[in-house]
Amino acid sequence: MTDYRTIEWRDAVVRMLDQRLIPQKTVYVDCADYREVAAAIKDMVIRGAPAIGAAAGYGMALAAFRSRAADLHSLRAELAEADTVLRASRPTAVNLFWALDRIKSRAADSALVSIEAVRAAILDEAHAIAEEDVWTNKQLGLNALPLVPDKANIIHHCNTGALATVDYGTALGIIRAAHEHGKKVHAFVDETRPRLQGARLTAWELKQLGIPHTVIVDGASGHFMRTIGIDLCTVGCDRVAANGDTANKIGTYNLALVARAHGVPFYVAAPTSTIDLNIPNGDAIKIEERAAREVTHVGNEQITPDDVAVGNPAFDVTPAQYITAIVTEAGVAYPPYESSLRAMVERARALHQSRRAESAR
Ligand code: MRU
Predict the structure, then answer these.
(1) pLDDT exceeds 90 at position 42
(2) How far apart are CA 82 and CA 38, in angstroms?
């Protein structure tokens, strides 16, 4: 377990570590209302696809526990409203919709005939989403071990660590697992303009984990591949389409192209909760456009001329052809992804089901 908690349920309050302030300050934010959770996702108090999914689950639990509905019918109407508000918080990470779908179907169980029973079921499902995420990430890290040489320089983009998940991390979890298994890894941390998730968050996590690392600007990947040599790239994802096209933090596509030009393996870490088999390819992924101020300013300082035109897509899509493999909790998927991803999702479903059955015993 990591010392800090990205998100926690504490007696009808959702506590989150405010990721806007790290590394300068570690401040926790308490949300007592689902609208505050939606705002926290939108403002990136909490971010990273799996963490957003967990937050949505607990947001629904808040909606249930804080409701003053006098009967089940009114409670269900309030839950539908909370679901709509949370769904509108950020568009790209499928984990948000995946988690809300899970809560919705659990709460719809006709065996739940009292307000208390609905509340308990929703909270139980939110806890299950959070708990599964930690297991998933650790398993994903173990599955990736054979892909990491004993001594490896690794480029990582954005932040995919414990902060981006409930704990442990996905692509950063791969680096973490390799380090924990005695491999001599050195992480090259893309700073990740404009919100600097790499420079601020990934470097903060790696420092605490004692993993050697160097922060680099996003445009430096080609230079390091050509000079010192990079053994692999690991990135996370916000949504993987059925054909393997992957949406992740802006700049991921550029990194994949540079990696291909240098023959460097490019691995996507994808918990199956981030795989969206309902969409055929990356063209169907909605890319979030964020405020121009993220680009025109660094902190409170304006760095561009006034009124400059700005494009600020938060994510890009890396076509499947540039992805060497997609690592999941159920194993490593290789091209052709149409069949391998489907197999991973099915295998993961069985794995999670048997874990649930075991813990119920
Ligand atoms: O805008 P963010 O910080 O939420 O973007 C996060 C990423 O792009 C991550 O790489 C992705 O969500 C995977 S996190 C395990």
Answers:
(1) yes
(2) 9
Q: Which domains does the chain have, with CATH numbers?
A: 7-138 (1.20.120.420), 143-360 (3.40.50.10470)
Q: What are phi and psi of 32, to 5 degrees?
A: -110, 5
Q: Contact at 8 Å (CB) between 85 and 100?
A: no
**Which tokens belong to 325?**
């493999």
Q: What pLDDT digit, counting tens, does each position of 63-84 carry? A: 999 999 999 999 999 999 999 9
Catalogue the active-site residues.
238
Tokens of 4: 């800090």
Distance (Å, rounded) from C-alpha 54 to C-alpha 131?
A: 9
Residue 162 in this model has a pLDDT that exceeds 80: yes
Q: Which residues of 216-255 are buried (b: 16+ CB within 10 A; e: fewer)?
A: bebebbbebbeeeebbbbbbbbbbbbbbbbbbbbbbbbbb
Beta-ladder partners of 333:
326
Q: Which residues does 217 contact at the CB level (< 8 Å), separation at least 6?
A: 190, 191, 193
CB atoms within 10 A of CB 213: 21
SS3 126: helix
Ligand 1 atom, smallest distance to 248 CA: 8
* 92 CA distance to ligand 1 middle (Å): 10
- Residue 91 to residues 2, 97, 157, 264, 331: CA-CA distances in angstroms? 28, 9, 20, 31, 27
Ligand 1 pocket, Cβ-based, cut-off 6 angstroms: 47-50, 93, 158, 160, 164-165, 170, 197, 236-238, 248-249, 314
